[in-house]
Every structure is written in C-alpha cells, then in structure tokens.
Amino acid sequence: MTVTTASTTGDAIEPRPDVVTLTIDGVQTSVPKGTLIIRAAEQLGVAVPRFCDHPLLDPVAACRMCLIEVEGMPKPQPACAVTCSDGMVVKTQMTSGVADEAQRSVMEFLLINHPLDCAICDKGGECPLQNQAMTNGQGDTRFDGPKRTFPKPINLSAQVLLDRERCVSCARCTRFAEQIAGDPFIELLERGSQQQVGIAAGIPFNSYYSGNTIQICPVGALTSAMYRFRSRPFDLVSTPTACEHCASGCSLRTDSRRNSVMRRLAAVDPDVNEEWNCDKGRFAFRYLESDRRLSTPLIRENGQLRSASWNEALVAAAAGLKAATGKTGVFTGGRLMVEDAYAYSVFTRRVLGTNDIDFRPRGSSTEEEMFLANRVAGRGLGPTYADLEASQTVLLVAFEPEDESPIVFLRLRKAARAGTQVVSIAPSASRGLVKTGGTWIPAAPGSEAFVVDDLNDDWVAALGQPGAVILVGQRAAASEGLLSAVVRLADRTGANLGWIPRRAGDRGAVDAGLLPTLLPGGRPVADAAARVDTAAIWGVADVPEAPGRDITGMLAAIESGDLEAILVSGVRMDDLPTGSEAGLRDARFVVALDTHHHELVELADVVLPVAAAPEKAGTFINWEGRKRSSSQALTTSLMSDARVLAALAGELGFDDIDGDPARLRAQLDEFAGWEGARVGSPEVVAADPETGTGFLLATWRPLLEPTAMQEGEPYLAATAPKRQVWLSPSEAATIGATEGQPITVSGASGSVTAPLVVTEVAEGTVVVTGDAYRSVGHIDGRVQVAV
Amino acid sequence: MPLTPVLSAHWDEADSYTLDGYRRHGGYDALPIAFAQQSDDVIQLVKDSGLRGRGGAGFPTGMKWGFVPQGDGKPHYLVVNADESEPGACKDVPLMLANPHSLVEGVIIASYAIRANHAFIYIRGEVPHAIRRVAAAVREAYAAGLLGSNIEGSGFDLEVTVHAGAGAYICGEETALLDSLEGFRGQPRLKPPFPAVAGLYGSPTVVNNVETIASVPSIVANGADWYTSYGSEKSPGVKLFAVSGHVERPGIFEAPMGTTMRELLQWAGGMRKGHRLKFWVPGGSSVPLLTEEHLDVPYTYEDIAAAGSMLGTGTPMVFDETTSVTRAVTRWLEFYKHESCGKCTPCREGTYWLVDLLRRLEAGIGSDTDITRINEVSAQIAGRSFCALGDAAATPFPGAIKYFADEIALGTHTTAAELFDPVAATVFTGVNA
Amino acid sequence: MAISETTRAQMREVLVRYPRKRSALMPLLHLAQADDGYVSADGISVVADLVGLTDAEVTAVATFYTMYLKQESGHVRVGVCINSLCALLGGDEIWDALVDHCGVGTNQTTDDGTITLERIECQAACTHAPVMTANWEFLDDMTVAKARHVVDDVRSGRSVQSTRGPAVRTFADAGRVIAGVDDGLVAEGDHRDDRMLAGLRIAQQNGDADRSAEAERQGASKVKGR
After folding, report:
1. Does C84 lie in the same domain as C165?
2. Separation of alpha carbons C32 and C76, rounded Å
3. Is the pLDDT of residue A1 over 60?
4. Is B199 in the same domain as B248?
5. DSSP label of A349
C-alpha cells in the first residue's frame, strides 16, 4: 500500500493493472484490486465501525453499521462489501455527515432491542457493540417501547450458550460454522425481528471449532458454559502462549486471574491458525488445576510414595541412576517444549552416557525412525500452511486432519473452497474429507503401502505439479512399508512431503534428537562427523557412539536385565504398548518427571514434579517446523523439566548441564543447517496383507476424548462425537445390519458396541470412531463384527 | 381511452386456461415467429417494444435480457417471478388462473432469446389453484411438444419447472427469490453480481414478472410497433390494471399505459354509492398514496413518479372517506414488520419500532413526538436497508402525512376507531350487524 | 410422526425436477408437512437426508416461511386476510366474528381439530376483498355471515366450495398440490366472475375487445406472412 496525501496528487502515480487508486477521507491510497473499502480504510488507520464484517468470512453487508459515502452513489454504501475502484472518492464517518448519521442510525436501531445488560454480560469491557456504541452512537436512545425479549439462555451445545436478546443477527457465528468449519449445525432461524440463531431440534452445535463463534460474536450473545460469569475482561492478565495440545501450533491468548487460567482465545497468526483454534485448545486447560497435580517431589519408602524435599528426592534419584550407570533408558512423551526435549537429549547422552532414548511411547518402528531422521529431523520450515493453501493437490496418507491436527483441517478446507484438490488414502471417506470436497482412495489397514505404490497416473501427475503436497500422519508408522512408499512417491513426484504428528512436542523431540540413532538437528549417531560436531557444540570430548534402543528395545532390555533404570517424562501407561506395565515393574529403578499423578508415576521410585506448559516460557515446534514460542502465563514454584534435569545432573556430578531455556534454545539453534551425512531413506517392503476371517479394524484417536489433558472440562467432553461403527453398504448387508443399529466389534483383547453408520469404507474393513481406540484400538489382527 | 384486452381477451371462455382455449385465439402462434429469428433479434424486438417490467420496478425488459452474457459456456436460466404478494397487487394470480398458456408461451420465447434451457416459474405457495393451472399448462405444453427437446423442430430445448413458495413476501425481491429457489432462506443477495451475470446457481439468469413474460408472445406476434402504439414513449404498451377497494365494481381492467385513474375509476363504476374518494395507492402498498387531485395523472412510470408516487404494480387500491389513514398505514407497517426477512438492521429493527409508534397513534395514545419520530425512523430506514423492502416500509407514512397530517395528529388523543367507524368502512355494512 | 412411503415416493419425483437437489427443499417440506400436519423434526430429518443438508440448515428454511407450521394444523386452515385493504373492507370484522364463533385465536385449532384460524397477509385477490382462504383456496368477497357459514360447514363435515377453485380438500391435499403433485382438479372452479371479467365486459360492450383481438390476429398473420 502506498499512501499520499491529497495535496501531493500532482505527482502522477504510475498506474498498475493490479492496483487501484482511490481517495478515502481526502487521503489518496493505492490498494490491490478487489480490496474492500473497509480494509483499505483500515490500512489508513480509519476504523469504520462494523459487526457482520469479518476479514475471514464472506461479506454479507447485513448489519449496515459500516455505511459510508461514495461519491456518485445515491445511497450510503456498506464499506464491508464494496470493492475499491480507481478514482473512487470515499468519505467515512470521519469526513461525511451522511456516513456518520447513517451509522448512528444503525447503532440506534441495533440498541432498541438490545438489553443493555452490559453490567452482567461476559462481553462487557471487550464488546464491539459497547465500544462502537460509544464511538459511533449517541448517549441516549429515543426508543421508548417494549423491547423484544426471549427466555434466556439456550444451549446451542453443552458448551456454547446463546442469549438471544443480545444477538444483533450479524451471522458471524453461522457463517463461521458453514464457511470455515463446514459444520452448519447452527443457523439463523425464523425471520424479521424474530430472527435468531438456533439449532435443529435435539441436534446440538457439536463442532470441534464451536468456541470460535464465541470469540467472534461482536456482542455477548454467545458465551461458553465454562467461562460464563467467571470473570471480567479488565480483571484478566493476558499472556501470549502456544497451544500445548497438538502439532498444529496455534497461537493463543491465555487469560488468567489470580494465577488461574480463566479462558483461552485464539490469537491472530496469519501464518498458522489465522484467527481460529479448536475447542480442545480453547477449553482444555483445567488439567492445570487437577487434584492430581504433583506439587512436591515423592520418593518410595517401604513400598509407598511419600512427599520429600527436593534435596532428598534429587539425592535419591541420583543414587538410583548412579547404581544403574550405563543401564538407564529414557522415555519422553510427545508433550515437551523443545528446550526441555533438548535438555533430555543432552542429559541422556552426556550424563547417562547412552543413546537409549525414544520419544515415541506409542510403539516404534525402525522404518519410522529412519523416516524421521531422513525427512524430518532438522529440516527446518516446510511444507507450511501457506503451501497447503497454494497447492493444487494435497494428498493425505494415514491422516484425519480434523481429529489429528484440526487447524490443518481448517486450512485444507479453506484451500479446497478455493479449488485445491484434497485426496486421501484412508480406510474410509471420513466426514472431514467430505467437508473438504476431497477424493477418497480406499486402503484397507495394512495395504496402504501398495495403494501408494499403485497410485494411478492422474494422481501421480497431479502430485508432480509444482506446489503439490503430501501430508503423512504419524499413524503411518503402524503400517509396515507405508512410510517407505510415501518417501518413494515424494521422490518420484517431487511433491513437498510433510509429517504431521499428533502432539505439540513431537516435532521438537525429533529435532532435539530424542531417538536412539539421532543426535540433535538430524545428525546420525552412526556418523562420526556428526558425533564430533555434536561434541564440539557441547564442549565435550565425545558423545556415545553405540546406537541406542528404541522403546520396544528398551522394554525388552528391562526384561532381560540389560537395562535397570528408566527415566520417564510425561508418558502415561496407556500411551505405551499393551503389556508394558509388567516390563516397567521389572525395572529396578524408575524416575518420573511429570505434572500429574497417574498409573506410571505410581510405579516410580522417585517422582519429580515439573511445570506444565502454561507455567513456563518455552517453544513448541509445530508440524511445519515452525517455532511457536510461549510465554509463562502462570507463576509456579515448580521447575521446568530442563531445570530439574540440570539439578539432577548436578547431583550426579555434572555441574555444567544448563537448565536455562533461553540458553538451551540458543544452543539447539547451533545444530541447525546440518549438511553432513543423513540416516538413509527407509526402504521397507510391505508384507502382503494377511488374509483371514473377520474384518480389518481401522481407528484413529478423536480430537476430544477423556484423556488427562482434557480432564475437568465436562462441557467440552459433552460435545465430543459419539462412538460409531462404519461399514460399507455391502458389508453391512452381509452381516444384515442397518443404519443406526448397535454393532459389536470384538477382537482378542476387547470389544466395543456402537451404532452403525453405513458409508464408504474399504473392502473388508470396519472403522470404529470416537474414543473406541481405548477398547479396541490395540487389538491386533482381525476383529469380528456382529449385530 | 379504450380498454384493450389482450392477455385478458378471452377470460370469459370457460376453457381459457387450457391449451385448446389458448390456441383457439392464436395461442402459440408467436412461437414459430420467434424461432424463425435469431435469439438476439428477439431481444432486439423486445427492446424495441419498450416493454418494461410489470412487477413494480419497471426495468426495461429487453435491456435486462441483453445483460445476459452470451457464449459464456454456462447454463442460462429464466425465472418467472410469480410470487405476487405486494398488498394491492392482484393481476398475476388472475392471469395464471385464466390464461396460464400466455405465460408458458412467453417463457419459451424469453428462454429462446436468452439461450436458457431451463426455466422456473416461482409461484407463491398460497395460491394452489393458480399452481394447478400453471402446472397443467406446462404439462399440456410438454405433451404437445411445446416444451422439452427440439421444440416444434426448432432445435431449441427447454425444461420448465413449476415451483411453489411457502409464504414470504420478500421472495418477490429477485435475489431473495433466487436464494429461495435454491433452497435457502429467502434473503436478498449482495449485488453485484447481478442475476444477469450470476443468478441461479451462479449462472446468468433473467428474473421477470408473470405479466411481463406473458406480454411477450403478443409483442412477438404483433410487432414492436403495435406495442408502442399504446402508451407513452417511455411507458409503452398495455397492462393489467386491478382496481380494488371502495369502488362499485372492483376488478381487472386491461388498458393502455397512460390511462388515468379517473378512467379506471369510471370503469370500476366510480366510488361506492354515497361515498367519495379519500386516497388511492397506485401500485401496491410500497408506493406513496395519492389523492383526488391526482386522478388525471396518466398511468405511466414517468407521470406517476412526477406526481410523487410510483406506478409499481399498477393495481390501484381505492379508499373512501370512511377509511382511517392511520389504521391503513399501521396495518401496512405490520405487514412489512411481519415480512422483513431479518437480514439487515434498519429494516428488521426499524419496522419493529415503526409498528410500536403507529399502534400508539391508532390507539389514540400517540404524541407529537411519536409522529415526528415515525418520520425520522422512516428516513433512517430509507436508503440504508439491504433491499427495497426497507425502502417500501419507509414509504407509507411519509406518503400519508403529506396529505393527512391533521388526521394523523388526532391519534394523539383519539382512537382511529372513534374517528372512523370501522363498520362504515366495510363493504357489507348493515348486512351482518 | 413418520413420513409415509407414498410421500417419500412423491419426494423422489419432486427431486428430479431440479438441477440441484437443494432446490427441491421447499416442495419437500410441503410434502413432509402434508404427512404430519406440520413440519416435524422427523420430517426435517427425512428432507435433510434427501437433499444432503444438516437438520439445522433445513430448520433454518422451514422456520423462515410462514406456510410451514410448527404445530399441527386442523383439517381446514381458515385464513382471513387482515392486510389493510381487506381489513378495512371487512376482514377485521370477519376475523373478530370467527374468533368469537370458533373460540380460538390465530394459529389455534378448535377442540374438534377441524379448524385452525390464521390471520393471513395479502393473497393477491384484492379485487375480491374481503378475502378468506380455506386450505389456501380462495373464498372471495366474504361477509361475516358467509364466513360463519364456511366454518359451520367445515365443522359439520359439509363440502365447502371455494371461489375460483375447487371444493376445499384436506390440508394435506393442499400441501401436495403446492409441492407440485397433480390432483386432477385443474378444471374445477370457474375463474369467470364479475371482478375477473370487469374490464373485458366493458370492452366487449364498447366493441374494444374485438378490436384488440383483431389486432392480435392481424399482427400475427402479418408477421407470419413474411
């Protein structure tokens, strides 16, 4: 944008075909063709008042608050819907009596039926209606009739409540639901002065993105059950944070009061989450105040855990680890900030002197490790959200974006609305895929690698076009040969390959080298130069040369006695492969760093409490490889993992292990740009799919499920989709089942019953959605399906 | 001026609504004439005829057709606006009851002109017998090879779908009608893009009123010169006038444009016996009322506009001295409030406010401030609403107070019913005491 | 209530008339209403499935239009136009009389389930004011006495003849006609009344009708002759 004052218009501005030049309030400005007047005015610092306008929603020009004067037009025009044209002369309320009067009129109309209950309204203090009534309204109303009233409030969902009398019918919420989320479960109902937002009878607004409607509501009509009446905006302390839940990497604003989080909002970050987030990121933070939070160190005495001082606990932990020198393994989960992850990498290699570390408690494969080392670790930024939006074709493999990285889903949907072709190799055409207008390529569990290898020429050609992206989900590791096939496809087509893990700390863990064969920044343990380089940065003579064991290997080593101690952080028992508990009980010594009590913590000999993400400053690396820095929102006496490890290292005689996050981050940055040897591409050949009786089970973890990170938030939990069983029409007919009928899926280790949805599912496959993975997700082999 | 029955020329025949009845008097004879010409020539003919939209806005029909981009590769659509719902308008429904084939023939010719292969007739839902008659006419036309593939060997294909609304005045607004026809709430769309460029399903679409389309066959058959021989230069042709209210013989009168209200009133037998004219509304409640002094204003778009009103639907409502103008205006505003779609603030909230204020005046408890306020609120709606419904709602009161300020002011202390005995206004006074 | 198989079949017939399924939404809702007497949640759900929308999207449409009912209608829905012209010419008196006569208000149904009264807006029949409707068929040129008579006939099971339309059928029948299902009654009801023919008769008396018809024929043959 260029800005000149009207007085300098004598200097001719070179006309450009993609730019128009107009005058707003006497100031000449040039903007890209297609720019709306309201945006052009914003760029000049002129705020035209508005309600229905939202830069990420299609213009609707319904509220009429932004009426401005355009020379030559007989009536005031909505600035939110009229695009700038060359030579246009716009006068906003700043310079036009007509515009000012029109806006004041509209404001008066908006307020005649508004309850003006600001004093008890959540929005009071941060309300666009309240604010604009002050700037663009009059102090008093001339309306003296009876106001329209409604019984209040009504539940649009368990979480989202609606006070209809406050609504100004701007339709931001309904447009968001339809245009952005693709969940048109709320709509404008009735008409005229009875027009109101509502839902279908008995069908709540259960969208993963419902909380955004509350945030963009320009009045206090939409509130959340969890925040309603809890606080006033001016009592809140706002902190910019990064979401700790998934790998999407949303920027958030965490609002706290008296050191307690009251609410979280999506922060504006055009590169990542734009202005949105998911309901998990918005509402799931009560875990911070769980009764199960660990507040003091614990040590085991006479078989029982008891509170201990830090000194006592560190001494005990150090003694136990010392006794197991060379025989200690490290499990970290996927939730660590990258500074903490790096601290584990350093601690494991320098203090414990081993490469026995793995961040993948869910089970691991060498193929995945090679994939991560070869294609992900230390590769920096990209593909990015912007790449998704710019691409003509995006192929999804073993990835359900809506459940597994919800902001990726939103960006894919945005891209799809603009013409991007989304195609998914998956066991079924999920609702998320349908919402992106995507194409489904069926692949039964275990056969995905063959499907990738056999992709037809049209798709291969599409992926060969510049900008094409392949997104492979973390689940791909569970299908032997699939990651190898994906790498082959990416190499064959030149498509930009992205890996999307589930958790916020997964990508950082890869970059920090929390893998048995990988040092920080993608350096292979097996490569001497990489070890030398690493040792140099660390200021030590050498780093352990022997490749470490992955989690499966470590569990086996505990059983065999090759490993005696385990240092574990942020890993829950149900994150681990079935049967891990017995193995862990065999370990002679377990040190757990964690935020909460849980089954695995109960096994530990020493428990060291650590700060949760909002209680410390740090950085997550999202799936793109983008740093997501997070400020400390809450004060706490608890230390970060890195500081605890530094203290523990000190106790073990390593006084130079740093626990300072800024210095750790700076040191990790030194690992960037590795140009040396890499772990090779995975070249695993998939085994022919086994044949057998029964169905192949396909399932993935839903966004909302009863996990520790979502505890204490019943309203959120109540919006989770219900468990379903999906079968293809022919398979449903085979077992004689009809839509909605309860179906039982049973395998060797459990069964689950849920209503049937007849939809597109790969041959011989049954899909179980919702939180069913806990019951059947770990069943190996085939399952039986029956009415 | 003489009456000129064209569309209504054979309504006195019992089977006027059938294909046989229509064909008996040259029905569908215009079709081969049209097919013998290029589509653009038909558009030019309609341009030359000066035919203007009979739905109320009076937009030149040929020009509207000419806006449709040709050779754009998209399907084109013709949509007939048969959602006649304007208070006072009662010409399209009679036409559909008595002469639906003129509409069907017009649809075929218009579709041919704009290269549409699918046309829709959107009829308001509350008139099942009109729906029966139009649907039957379409069925007959299909059976006779007048619709479907390769009509009359012309190579032109046309499907016609008869579609019924479900009770929403706003669907008379062409973009609201399109949204409704697409299965949405009937709320108006942002313009631009205009329907001629992006209408139904985002494709070029012409939306025309029933009477407009039904007028096309006679223009094609008789030529533009025939049509322009009636009416004025800017308002040529003939049209269906429907006179209602306190007249001796209300009814439909097909006459040239330029006919005066005085002539219409004479045909309608004058005011009912013993009563005199108080005011008349030239073309639906959305246009300002006029009085006796305007009886000689020619019924043309330009002359009625010069007199301070609008031709609108050309269906005058006539009220005598028993009428409370406050009561009439209040009821119209209640209508606009009821029919406001709710999309934009000025219309949604403004009609709510106006009704509250007007009811006070009707109840004799208004104030001078209320009267001022009604004018102010009307002005706050006018020109700020999303579509013309808001402007329409802002019309009746300012129109009324121009001539009846003294009467309206009585609403500050006396009820409308005391001022004007409602029974006296009924047309069955004394019959049902 | 469930949507009958007959109605589902009619719904499928309606669907094929439109290039896009969603366009069939309104007639489908008329059909759903014909089955249930109102637009039920079940009806919404069936229609939503057929056109591929969420129930909320269908509800949004169903609540926008006044003909879609939230409560079950009586057998005959009696509407009285209360827009200005009809109201003044006697609609208000008719309305008051019917409220008194039936003992119910607007959108309310008599205890015997036969009649639902409704205040309706302009029906495009102002030349025939005051206007009423029975299951949307015209009852033109009404008086209080005629209105009471209509109600009495309905309540006692007698046939009510509409003006410019057939004998009044059931509410469900009307809904199906509006949805586009042919009921074979197109020939019923004579449109030729004094109001419809007011202008034509004068023209005929004056010889104007012949003249314009002649012009039409001449013009046609002239162009044809080219």
Report:
1. yes
2. 17
3. no
4. no
5. I
Instruction: Give the tens place of pLDDT for each residue, A271-308.
Output: 999 999 999 999 999 999 999 999 999 999 999 999 99
Mean pLDDT of chain A: 94
Chain B residues within an 8 Å CB radius of C120: 126
Let me know if residue B231 belongs to a domain.
Answer: no
For the packed helices C5-15 and C171-179, what is the interaxial angle rounded to 10 degrees? Answer: 20
Secondary structure percentages of chain A, helix, strand, coil, to 5? 35, 20, 45
Q: Looking at the domain assignment, is residue B8 inside a domain?
A: no
Last residue of a domain, one of B159, B188, B222: B222
Query: Under an 8 A CB cutoff, do B384 and A74 touch?
Result: no
Sign of the four-CA dihedral A435, A438, A443, A449: negative
Q: Please list every residue in chain C whose beta carbon sits closer than 8 Å to the beta carbon of residue A199.
A: 56, 59
SS3 A496: strand
* Residues in chain C closer than 8 A to A185 (CB atoms): 54, 56
Q: Spell A97-106 as b/e; 16+ CB within 10 A means b.
A: eebbbbbbbb
Q: List the subunits that have 3+ CB pairs under 8 angstroms with A.
A: B, C
Does residue C36 fall inside a structural domain? yes
Residues B61 and B52: beta-carbon distance below 8 Å: yes
Dump the DSSP string for A70-100: ETT-SS-EETTTPBP-TT-EEE-TTT-HHHH
B9-58: per-residue pLDDT in tens? 999 999 999 999 999 999 999 999 999 999 999 999 999 999 999 999 99
Q: Is B249 on the interface with A (CB under 8 A)?
A: no
Chain A contact set for C60 (CB, 8 A): 187-189
Number of domains present in the structure of chain C = 3
* Residues pairing with A30 in the sheet: A2, A21
Alpha-carbon B113 to chain mean position: 23
Minimum Cα–Cα distance from A104: chain B residue? B380
Mark yes or no for CB contact C56/A185 under 8 Å: yes
Q: How many CB pairs under 8 A join A and B?
A: 89
CB contact under 8 A, C54 and A184: yes
Number of domains in chain B: 3
- The average pLDDT across A740-747 equals 92
| pLDDT value, residue B433 | 42
CA distance B109 to chain A (A): 35
Within a domain: residue C97? yes
Which residues does chain B have within 8 Å of residue C201's beta carbon, measured at their own beta carbons?
12
Q: What does the pLDDT look like over A415-461, one tens digit per residue?
A: 999 999 999 999 999 999 999 999 999 999 999 999 999 999 999 99
ipTM of the complex: 0.96
Q: Would you call A193 and B348 a contact, using CB atoms and an 8 Å cutoff? A: yes
Q: Number of C-alpha atoms within 13 angstroms, CB side, residue A406? A: 24
Separation of alpha carbons A16 and A7, rounded Å: 21
Structural domain including B343 reads: 325-425
Q: How far from chain centre, in Å, is Cα A503?
A: 8
Of A630, A633, A631, A632, the C-alpha closest to A620 is A630
List pLDDT tens digits, range C75-122.
999 999 999 999 999 999 999 999 999 999 999 999 999 999 999 999
* Inter-chain touch A192–B339, beta carbons under 8 Å: yes
Give A663-722 pLDDT, tens digit per residue: 999 999 999 999 999 999 999 998 887 777 889 989 899 999 988 899 999 999 999 999
Full set of structural domains in chain A with CATH? 2-112 (3.10.20.740), 144-289 (3.30.70.20), 313-363+516-669 (3.40.50.740), 373-502 (3.40.228.10), 695-786 (2.40.40.20)
In a shared domain, residues B349 and B390? yes
Interface test with C, best of A154, A176, A187, A431 (most C CBs within 10 A): A187
Cβ pair A105:B341 closer than 8 A: no
For C96, the domain range is 76-170
